[in-house]
Amino acid sequence: MNRLLPRGLMAPAVIALLLWMLVPLLMTLWFSLVNYNLMQPGQHGFAGLANYEYFITDPDFWPAVANTLLLIGSVIAITVVLGVLLALLVNDPFPGRGIVRVLLISPFFVMPAVNALLWKHMMMNPIYGVLANVWKFFGLTPVDWLTDVPLVSVIVMVAWQWLPFACLIFITSLQSLDREQMEAARMDGASAVQRFWYLTLPHLARPMAVVIMIEMIFLLSVFAEIAITTAGGPGNESTNLTYLIFKQSLMNFDVGVASAGALFAVVLANIVAVFLIRIIGKNLD
Amino acid sequence: MAYLQLKNIHKRFDDVHVIRGVDLDIRQGEFIVFVGPSGCGKSTLLRLIAGLEHITSGGLTLDGRDITHMPSGQRDLAMVFQSYALYPHMSVYDNMSFALKLAKVPKDQIRRKVAHAAEQLKLTPYLQRTPRELSGGQRQRVAIGRAIVRAPKVFLFDEPLSNLDAALRGNTRVEIHKLHVELGATSIYVTHDQVEAMTLADRVVVFKDGVIEQVGTPLELYDRPANRFVAQFIGMPSMNLVAADAIPAFSARSDGRLPVNGFLGVRPEGLHVHAAEGGEPGRVELIEALGADTLIHVEVGGVPLIARQNERTPLRVGDAVRVELDPTQLHLFDAQGQAIAHPETVS
Amino acid sequence: MPPNPWFTTLRTLGAWAAALLLFFPLGWLFLTAFKTELQAIAVPPLFVFEPTLENFGEVQRRSDYLLYARNSLITSVASTVIGLLIAAPAAYSMAFFRTKRTRDILMWMLSTKMMPAVGALLPIYVLAQTAGLLDSLSALTLVFTLSNLPIMVWMLYSSYKDIPNEILEAARMDGANLWAEFRHVVLPLSVGGLASTGLLCLVLAWNESFWALNLTSAKAGTLATLIASYSSPEGLFWAKLSAASLMAIAPIVVFGWFSQKQLVQGLTFGAVK
User: Fold this and answer.
1) What is the ipTM of this complex?
2) Domain named ABC transmembrane type-1: which ranges (chain A) (predicted)?
3) Which residues of B touch C164 (CB under 8 A)?
4) What domain range includes position A229?
5) Which of B5, C181, C187, C196 has a 20 to 30 A CA-CA distance from C223?
6) What does the CA dihedral A163, A165, A166, A172 come to, rounded to 10 degrees?
7) Are B89 and C189 within 8 A, CB to CB?
8) Number of independent structural domains in chain A
9) B–C: how many Cβ contacts below 8 A?
10) How far is CA C254 from the centre of its chain?
């Protein structure tokens, strides 16, 4: 069998991804070790680990980490719990099921920029927004979402967008639930709650793990929703790691420090990726 | 002169030695059946002949040409797959004409050949359908038709009837047999079903663990199995095999030819069960009334045996009976399981 | 035992309520696009009103919507097509010429998708700047292509693997060489997979916001850039924002309705069946 042909077919993809992976990584590594500010070209002294130190001691650093964890954690919690409930609700046939599924899925396909502004203005505006009107309807003072609870606002936006994703995954997984096993359990006298706890939930364990890991990886990079609505503020209340690095890069133009931060984010993502890859690998024939 | 010759064929998958030295000569026009338990290597050998796997060592010759390392498409062989492997996106006509199209046969010739094969297989009304619109039996026939159209030197069948239900299996078996008579083509047929083997084959090759246990006509294998394995593999229900010291009375009927650690073999039709005198005492364990045949499972001296007779029986489970052995139907095997003696048969 | 009819009714109501609630913001966006600016900020909110199409025209006049739309279209389509051209042979090779390292290579490719974009932001920005490609369609297209490449390879690999091996063997027995096998069997049977992969990546590229916002502005800006510019302009703008947004998301949301299954496959890397 010709050994050249398979390699030739794979070459473009492998080379492209190799470059895509290595070039930025190596450059980031280099940048993180030098003094490089886009506003001060020509100054390229070696800085050692100074950039890392600077990044970590930035007063915004730990708040950003906390916000990132809070953001990721809350969105995951909301999407997984509600996702499972919704999936169970929609699992068995009922009139209009097709339409309901379509409605449920839609938010996921909305451009993050549209998502951000849709919520910022039409929903969360404290005077004219829909939520404000709902609050007024119940006799409560409307919440000034983006000013008073910026991180919560971002969490709401992101959760709204990702809930359909989790829901869809769980719906798919529930389709492969063994009906006969359920019927056997019913004949053995198991109640609906018991059937859920002992049969459904374990079956969903794997997709839940996958959803959690994938969301961890992609939620780390939440950017548009923050950039367009709160710009990380007020102060640093809604700044996450990604936004912090962005601020350092393209607003402060401090390439060195930003690169140190970027590597930090990459390491974090890598840790989760290792586990996710292991699960995927097991599934691969 | 062998039409298809296998010489010392070996096949290894990594460290697993699957085919361990197979020699076989197949004559032109023969219908050869490869039979054996799962994992014996019969399908692998078929795939080696087809060229779908590489032969690790050994030689393969077809009609004088060495095809050991030739690509499948050039060997002039056609294969009918177990799952039919029809092209799902092509019509029946296109499925059957694909090979000819690739060989750049002129269109009108293709049309003629396909029409002829379709008629033989009663597929003419379905030529424009896609496989999805056909039943299992029809798909099976398209798979066969695809092979016939090519008029290859040898037909290869890989358990073609396994995916059909029982009734269809019987009918299709008969059809395959008729086709073979009509076309006279050399065929190699792999199956684990010995009824297919017995009814279709000119000669049967019994495999076990990658080696040939015996080659012969169906009745040769039935009447003169070379060893214990073949003896118990061919024939349903299996031949009764009794250790030499298990039922002394039976062993005595061998006139001393049975070695000390050997085995006595007698087919179910060679045992007679009756309530009256004679033979050895036994107990009825199970009665299987099949209508034309009756199978009586008995226990004699702690050994389970099966007897077969054409008449219905009034016996019941638990009855005490006498079991008699027909000495003219004795097979004798030595301690290693090799056959020593067979009954003389009327041929 | 058939389910309790009350339970079914409750469940149906619950499902519909949840769906409508979740979809509400989008529905509201839809309605607002057809209101006048004053109607858009009416308190209490208006559900019944006389629809108008004036916003759609305004958006085009104000900020040249069509330019941004064109950029979105070009970058999504180009990146998808180029991506498929690179990914298809690779996936083909991995599916049909498997080696011991195939699995590892596939896993590695997937892992490149898992790296946060922000990790590559600076280097890419600097490279683009040096090459004079900031605010250019080519830079954006390149980045989109590379971002989606792993998903494309993965999904195409899956659809090639779905072709039963015996059919390919039958083709081989029928005398097909590698090219004939590809042309007559693999290609027709994988067209569906190609289409759905392309569709999914089109959606992903269209919605892409991180790179679009950071690498482009006035010339090569995509719809994401346009929408982002509505972050806080002067005057009343909700109706126009809704109109612009609606035009930006409508085709994609509809595409999404049709590519649900591929979504699950692609974005979970097949880890969920």
Assistant:
1) 0.82
2) 65-276
3) 83, 85
4) 47-280
5) C196
6) 140
7) yes
8) 1
9) 60
10) 11
